[in-house]
Structure formats: C-alpha cells, structure tokens
Amino acid sequence: METRLVKIATPSPLVRYGIAIAAALGGLLIRFPVASMLGNKLPYITFFLATSVSAYYGGFGPGIVTTLLGVALADYFFVPSLGLLSLGSAADILGALLFVGISGFISFLAGRLLETRRHEQALRQIFHQTLVSIGDAVISTDVDKNVRFMNRIAEQLTGWKESEAKGLPIEKVFRIVREDSDVPAELPIEKVLSTGSIAGLANHTELIARDGRRIPIDDSAAPIRDTRGETAGVVLVFRDISERRAVDRALEASESRCRNILESITEAFLLLDKDWRIADTNPAAEKVLRAPAQDLLGKIFWDLFPATLGSNLESSFRHAVQERKPAFLEYHYEPWDEWFDISAYPSQQGLAVYLRDISARKQDEAALVRLNQDLKQFTFAATHDIREPLRMIMLYTQLLQNKLELENSPLTANIVEGAQRISRLLDGLLQFSRLGEYDAAAPSVVDTEAALRDTLEDLQVSIHERNAAVTHDPLPLVLADHAHICQLFQNLIANSLKYCKPGTKPAIHVTAAHTQGICRFAIHDNGIGISSEFHHRIFEPFKRLHGPEISGSGIGLATCKRIIERYGGKIWVESAEGQGATFYFTLAEAKQAAAAHATVQ
Ligand code: ADP
Fold first, then answer.
1. How far is the CA of 543 from the centre of ligand 1 (A)?
2. Which of 135, 150, 380, 485 qualifies as a cystine partner to 162, CB 3.0-4.6 A?
3. Closest protein CA for atom 18 of ligand 1
4. How far is the CA of 572 from the centre of ligand 1 (A)?
5. Measured between alpha carbons, how far is 384 from 386 in angstroms, rounded to an integer?
C-alpha cells in the first residue's frame, strides 16, 4: 500500500529479477553436491528452495522466473532423458509439470505474503507518521510508566529528545505542577492505569520543561490496549495553551475589574437577560431593591416588582430593548412611595439597568415648589399691603401741600419722590418673584429682531431725550418667550441709556453670533462702564453701584439673569470703568432648541 503519507521502499525490477536468476543458479550449485547422493532422482529438489527465496524477496514474477530457469537447468543437468527442449518419458514430463505447479503455487503464496508485509509496513509507517506530525504533543509509555515514544511537539515542549527520553520514567520527562506554584500536579497516567479509562488534567496545570520553562498545558491520557484488550501502556496527548491562558487571564482580570467597579459604584446595577430575568446585581442594588442578591438573581423582574407592569418603566424598558436605544427616566414606585432615577442600556446580554434613589431630592424639589409658591404669595400680599399706605402717604402729602399752600416745596417733593421710589421697588420685586413661577408657558419660537423693535418703541421717549443711537445686526430666532425677551432688551438697553457718560451721545449696538446651535447676543454701549470687581455682583438682586442720583431698583439685571437661566443660558458683562460695557447672554437657536425639545418630549 502506498499513500501520499508513506512510500515503502521496494527493490527495483533489476534487483528482483537478478535475485531470481541468482537463486536459480544457487539452486543448481547446491544440486551438484547432492547429485552424488541422489543421482538423477528428485532433480528439482533444490530449486524449490531457490523459488521460495526468489518469491520471498521479489514476489510472484521473480518466483516464476526462478521456477522456469529451475526446470531448464534441472532438465539439462539432471534429467538426461529430457535434455534441453527435448521430449522424455511421461514420468519425467509429469515431474517437470509437478515442479512447475508447486513452485508456481509457492511463488503465488510468497507474492501475497510480500504484499501483506508491505501493507503492514505501510500502516505502521502511517501510524508513526501521524503521531509524529500531529499538532498536539504525544508521549506513550509502557505499563511501567517508562517513555516509549515521543513526537516532535512533545520533544519541543518537554525539551527532551525522544532518543534521550526513551526508557526514562514519565515523571522525569513530563513534570507538571499547579499553575503559579511548585505543588506537583497528579499525573493522569496513574488514573488511567488504575481505572483503565481516559483521564484529563486538572485545570490550570503547567509543564516544567527540561530548561525550567513553565508552559500552561491541557492534557488527556488514554490506555493503549493490546490485542487481548489488556492495558499495554498509556498515551498522553497534551498541548501548549499559553495563548488561551493569556486570553483567559485578561478576561478574568477585566471581569474582576468590572465586578469591582460594579461593587464600588453607589448606583444600583441590574443586568436583565432576554427573558427579563435578573442575571447580575451589585451590593447597591440589594439595598435599593430591599432584597439580598440570592432573592433577586434568576428571578423575572416583572414577577418581583409587579407594580411596574403597565407603567412608564415597563414601556421604557421594552422600547429600549426593541429599538436598541438607551432609556432614561424618573420613576415613582407606588408600593414604596419612592422615586428612582433610572438609566437602561440595551446590550447583547439584555438590558443593563442603573438605579438611583432620588426620593430625598424629589421631596426637596416639592418643598422648594411649595416654598416658592408661599414666597410668591407673600411678596404679592406684602407689595399689595405696602402699596395701599404708600398711596395714602402720597395722597395726604398732596392734600398737605394744597392746604399749606406749599406748591413746589422741596419738602413735599422729596416725600413724593421717596414714595415713588418705594413703588418702583415694589414693582421690581413683584416682577422678579413672578419669574420663579413653575407653571410658565412652554417656550416658543421668538423672533428676537421683532422683540427688539417692540422694546425700542417702548423706550422711544428715553432714546429721544438722550439723543441716543440704537443700532443692531440681523438677529436670530430663539426658543423662549416673547415677553421675556422684550423684558431682557428693555432692562439692558434702559441701563445703557441710564448709565451713559455725561456729555456723550449714547451709542448702543446689538449683535448676535451663533455657533453649534447656541446664539450669543451682545449689547454694547459707550457708557460709564463697570469696574471688574463688580462684574458678578451687579447680577445679584438689589445690588446697585449708584445712589439716588440715578433712579433704579437694583432688580433689573437680577431679573435678566433669572430669565436667561430659565432657558439654560448664561449672562455676563465685559467692561472696564469709563470704557463702556458689553452685556452678553446666550440662548438656544430656535431650530436646534426645537429639535432638542422634541427629543425630551
Ligand atoms: P438698576 O435699577 O440700579 O439699574 P440693575 O440691576 O439694572 O439695577 O443694575 C445694577 C447695577 O449695575 C446698576 O446700579 C449699575 O450700577 C450697574 N449697571 C447696569 N448696567 C450698566 C451699564 N450699561 N453701564 C454701567 N453700569 C451698569
């Protein structure tokens, strides 16, 4: 048998037929000394041997050649009645035919034997080659646990050559220890020999090579049975799993990092699998969900918290999984009367849920709303109650003035002026407190250029009186409230007119620049300016940098700040004393803001 795996060496036809001729001649040479004993009897006797030798080495063909040569030689030398190619007695002819028949049969049998031998040899070689070239390391031992065979990979891993290792006890060549220690690991061979069945290595075993290298290996051992089925030895198959172990270790390290993070975060974490079962949790989740991990793990979320069914939490979770989009929500869990801030992220494994108990914050918020409402009511009542006596003061001052005929008296004028100032302050206070209302109308698209036009109309008299020039660039659309934007412009432009440099014609310019959906407005004036130390403080309520010589309530900029912050913007000033001032504020551009608003909804 010849395959691509092995090539059995067979003698060439020349050698085979040379042997056939030599064997025939050999048969003849041996026959001569025998002739003195046998005479002409049994002329072919030595040629049986010659044919057998020839067929054994060369197969059927050479056997036949030797047979025929044997017939010719024997007839010529030892059967005179026949001679070469001459007819003899019937007995001689029968003898010759008998020899040819028997020798032919011997040749046939020897040829078959030769073929079987070659076949076996080929099988043995294939088997050997397979073991040698197998990708895993292979070592076989006898029943006394001495090495009998090693393939190339086994040689590389152990550092032993097969020739050196042959006959050595296996534990000398195949030294194994537990990973990261010097504690010897149990050889699977022992188990195989005692149980007669296949055995594997314990997890995380390292082979110590001859040069001291430690190689993580994976291994199995199986008994080698003889033809009677008895254990004749053990075959060990093992492989280098360094790369796999490195990947495993990296994975273990990353898993333990993740676990540490999950354990240390204050947010409760739940991993819900595709069937909504809780597959993982962290200690914070046990606290928030009021149950130990073993009561949570493996349970269906909806079974544990049935009150969530039909709620915005259920719809958000299902939507997140279906659409593969994260969900963020604030959820009130009725049975516990608690609020949770929840983020849910869909993944291959299911849904990763993070929860934070925000009940305390919600309570604070509710308290703040109540407080604000109380404050608003109080301000309203207080301003209303103060306004009444104030009206009386002004009325009686007027009456007193008429009665005492004190027309144009600075005394009464000061009283009236003071009362008017109190009245303005009350107006500002009321306006400021109303901005804190939570039930304000939803923002809409506001044309800021139109809002500026309306404001300038209202300020017409002041502008005219001061001979001021108010100019502007094209202004954008923002998402806010028209009245609020008018109030902003009104306060800022009125200030620019009010705090102008004496003897200088006020010049006020309004611009807007926008980047990434945010509009930045700027109102620039050429007035008295503000020293940098007051840049922050002027936005505080009732903070004024001037006395009664310039009228004002100190509420204007605080109101502007409150409006802007309500829309998520910022307001600030850039100025230096005597060098004018530029007030900036930011608002979301209408297009961007509308889109953002839509997603929040
Ligand atoms: P007021 O009613 O006093 O104007 P505001 O809150 O509007 O109150 O302003 C607070 C203070 O900031 C003002 O008293 C003034 O000193 C200063 N201020 C505001 N705008 C300007 C400006 N354009 N130029 C100079 N100073 C200003």
1. 8
2. 150
3. 495
4. 13
5. 6
- Ligand 1, CB within 6 Å, residue ranges: 491, 495-496, 499, 525, 527-530, 538, 543-546, 552-558, 581
Q: Which atom of ligand 1 is nearest to the CA of 550?
A: 3
55 with 49: CB under 8 angstroms? no
Top mutation candidate among 462, 499, 509, 550 for ligand 1, by most atoms within 8 Å of CB = 499
Biggest alpha carbon–alpha carbon distance for the chain = 191
Q: What angle do CA 370, 371, 374 make, to 5 degrees?
A: 85
pLDDT, tens digit (0-9, with 9 covering 90-100), for 189-236: 888 888 887 877 767 889 999 999 999 988 888 888 877 888 888 988
Angle in degrees, 0-180, between the axes of helices 60-78 and 90-133, rounded to the nearest 10: 150
Residues in the chain: 601
Instruction: Say which residues have a Cβ less than 8 Å from residue 185's Cβ, sequence separation at least 6.
Output: 176, 177, 178, 201, 202, 205
Q: Which atom of ligand 1 is nearest to the CA of 554?
A: 8
Question: What's the predicted TM-score (pTM) here?
Answer: 0.46
Ligand 1 atom nearest 529 alpha carbon:
25
The alpha carbon of 549 and the centre of ligand 1 are apart by a number of angstroms equal to 13
- The runs of H, that is alpha helices, within 269-409 are 283-288, 293-296, 301-304, 312-323, 359-403
Report the candidate in 208, 239, 219 with the shortest Cα–Cα distance to residue 136.
239
3-state secondary structure of 70: helix
Answer yes or no: are the C-beta atoms of 410 and 417 closer than 8 Å. Answer: no
Instruction: State the DSSP code for 228.
Output: T
Position in ligand 1 atom list of the atom nearest CA 583: 23
Measured between its terminal Cα atoms, the distance across the chain in Å is 81
Question: Could you tell me the distance, in angstroms and rounded to a whole number, from the CA of residue 538 to the centre of ligand 1?
Answer: 7
For the chain, give the mean pLDDT: 86
What are the Cα distances from residue 131, in Å, to 4, 140, 153, 160, 261? 16, 10, 10, 17, 49
Give 435 or 494, the one with higher predicted confidence. 494
Q: What is the mean pLDDT of residues 318-346?
A: 94
The secondary structure of the chain in percent helix, strand, coil, rounded to multiples of 5, reads: 50, 20, 25
Alpha-carbon gap, residue 168 to 141, rounded angstroms: 9
Atom of ligand 1 nearest to the CA of 552: 2
Residue located via tokens 């299902």: 318
Pairing of strands 518-525, 507-515: antiparallel
Distance 556 CA to ligand 1 centre (A): 8
* Residue 138 Cα distances to 133, 206, 436, angstroms: 10, 16, 83
Residue-wise pLDDT for 237-288, tens only, equals 888 998 888 898 899 898 888 888 888 888 899 999 999 999 999 999 999 9
In angstroms, the CA 288 to CA 579 distance is 58
Percent of the chain with pLDDT over 70: 93
- Which residue has a Cα nearest atom 11 of ligand 1? 544
Handedness of CA 17, 18, 21, 22 (dihedral sign): negative
Which protein residue's CA is at the shortest distance from atom 23 of ligand 1?
496
pLDDT at position 7:
56
CA 27 to chain centre: 84
